[in-house]
Design brief:
eight-stranded mixed β-sheet, 557 residues, Glucose Oxidase, domain 1, single chain, 2 domains, globular, alpha/beta
Length: 557
């Protein structure tokens, strides 16, 4: 087997390149071994990435142990939590494509033989999966792991989202300021991706379900020694993958994509998987659409109840058996013959897995629900699709009708909720927050949490062409396509219009005739773009709609 790296390292023609490596201390011994990239998104801005410098050390140890030469480089990684609720959230989803592009550029420019991708959080892991599929070289995802749960608040271990819920309680006089400030100090006791089962931990689990992580590694808490041992093993395994010629597209196949959807539905994962899985499928050249997504969700039992659906957090899920236990329960439904980065199939990887805590993970014979935790809706408000999460919605709220109260931005909606203008029976419409209109498809996380804090979570609903955090609960529908900025029906809704959300029927309905909707849209004028320069101005022109994963298409075929 001729290594890719040897294309630019063979003597005498490539001595200049060898000299450049030697200027950094690499030796002839190093340069005859496989060059393994370590794409590290470590920084001191994002809690989920704070420990990745140490994790990287163990990955590099493993690479050297197995006969490779690690070559590390850095990547951007932004924090959804810190960016939430303000202009910064416009920039979060667009980083996904920048991350994929940066990895592609570094790997191809330097002809690396394999790549270990170190990340943890919401758009970073999807971007890394996209890059792996696009490059089709040997690749492994290594995540930093979730943080531990915080102090007990409102009947469960707290997390960072508890502060937003508590803000609503503070405004309502349900708690005092001292209690609120104490919570700030104890809600996030360690580094790691947020302890609830939001998009960050969902996508780490999705990467494992696709076969791109070592079994059981996606949920090892950030502060445990097991996290470092697993990282070292991943370093050894990437060298074996290079030697075996087992590349990413031999793992990220249509079977792997379907396994990922089933797993995310079985554990009540974040609605954001409906953006990221199609985007990864696009990069892997795997045909995929939202009809198939919904079919898989409808026929997948809901097995693991994790915050926000229940009190258990991600470390609890890990201790209960984690992804391997759920995958073993799903073997009759998933593609057990799908290949993974271990060089073994899914079925072989999970053969010895077991449920340790049935209060968190239930067997397939006794699920929390016979349908999965995610659902695709359609209707005259969402002709191309919308996404919701039944796992986080109380059964009595899965059919909800109410009067629209409309806002043309997240800020307007949040301000109205804090002022008390949103009342029982309202369907809060937040539009012009899609991939193009936002731009960047911001999370309506704060609106949902404020409604919860004000006691309206079971009395109102939120619908949007934006998206939601994996920690949101209540009654909500996002990813409405086509979005309002493209002239979708959401742009036609007015205050007082009646809207029905019917999750069992998979329907999102505006109680107007099609003629009335068409008449209103004929009078509609596209709003002025919020950003007219910089990357977001470009992104708003290039991004596809949410039902296509908000991808930036790049194929010419």
């Amino acid at each position: 087997m001729r290594l890719r790296s040897q294309q630019i390292l063979e003597r005498p023609e490539w001595s200049m390149q060898r000299a450049l490596f030697k200027s950094m201390g690499y030796t002839d011994y190093d340069l005859q071994r496989p060059l393994i990239g370590v794409a590290n998104s470590w920084n001191r801005l994002v809690p989920g990435h704070f420990n990745l410098r140490l994790v990287s050390d163990y990955v590099k140890q493993g690479i050297v142990q197995a006969g490779g030469t690690p070559v590390e480089f850095g990547l951007i990684a932004a924090c959804d939590g810190i960016a939430n609720g303000h202009e910064g959230m416009h920039y979060i989803l667009p980083t996904r494509d920048l991350i994929a592009n940066d990895i592609e550029m570094m790997v191809q420019a330097h002809r690396l033989d394999g790549i270990v991708l170190l990340g943890s959080c919401d758009k970073i892991v999807p971007g890394m999966l996209m890059a792996a599929a696009r490059l089709d070289i040997p690749a492994i995802i290594v995540v930093g792991g979730p943080m531990e749960g915080g102090c007990i608040f409102d009947g469960r271990a707290s997390d960072t989202t508890s502060l937003t819920e508590a803000l609503g309680m503070l405004k309502e006089g349900k708690i005092d300021e001292e209690t609120y400030l104490q919570l700030e100090d104890c809600a996030a006791p360690t580094c790691g991706s947020c302890s609830f089962f939001g998009t960050a931990n969902t996508m780490c689990c999705v990467a494992e379900a696709m076969g791109m992580c070592l079994p059981g590694s996606s949920t090892i808490p950030a502060t445990r020694a097991e996290r470092l041992r697993s990282a070292q093993e991943a370093g050894r395994q990437i060298v074996r993958l290079v030697e075996a010629g087992l590349t990413a597209r031999k793992i990220i196949t249509p079977k792997a994509i379907e396994n990922a959807v089933r797993l995310s539905s079985a554990v009540g994962g974040s609605t954001n998987v409906a953006l990221h899985i199609p985007a990864v499928a696009y990069e892997a050249g795997c045909p995929f659409d939202m009809d198939r997504f919904d079919e898989l969700c409808r026929t997948t039992p809901y097995l693991a109840k994790i915050n926000p659906a229940g009190p258990a957090n991600c470390p609890d899920f890990h201790d209960a058996g984690g992804v391997p236990a759920v995958m073993r329960e799903l073997l009759a439904l998933i593609h057990g013959d799908a290949m993974t980065v271990t060089g073994k199939t899914v079925a072989e990887n999970v053969a010895q897995a077991k449920i340790v805590n049935p209060q968190v993970i239930r067997p397939r014979t006794d699920p929390w629900s016979h349908e999965g935790g995610l659902a695709v809706l359609r209707g005259n408000l969402a002709p191309r699709s919308a996404i919701t999460k039944p796992a986080a919605i109380a059964p009595e709220m899965r059919v909800f009708s109410g009067k629209a109260i409309c806002f043309d931005s997240e800020e307007e909606a949040n301000h109205a909720i804090l002022q008390g203008r949103v009342r029982e029976g309202h369907v809060v419409v937040i539009r012009y927050e899609g991939p193009k209109g936002g731009p960047g498809m911001r999370e309506m996380y704060k609106a949902m949490k404020l409604l919860y804090g004000r006691g309206l979570a079971l009395k109102t609903a939120v619908i949007t062409d934006g998206r939601f955090s994996g920690t949101n609960n209540g009654c909500f529908v996002g990813h409405i396509s086509p979005e309002a900025a493209e002239g979708g029906p959401l742009a036609a809704v007015r205050d007082g219009d009646e809207i029905t959300i019917d999750i069992p029927a998979r329907n999102l309905h505006l109680h107007l005739t099609q003629n009335e909707i068409d008449k209103r849209l004929s009078q509609w004028k596209r709003p002025r773009p919020r950003f007219t320069s910089g990357y977001l101005a470009l992104y708003s022109q290039l991004a596809e709609s949410a039902d296509r994963g908000a991808i930036i298409p790049h194929r010419l075929d």
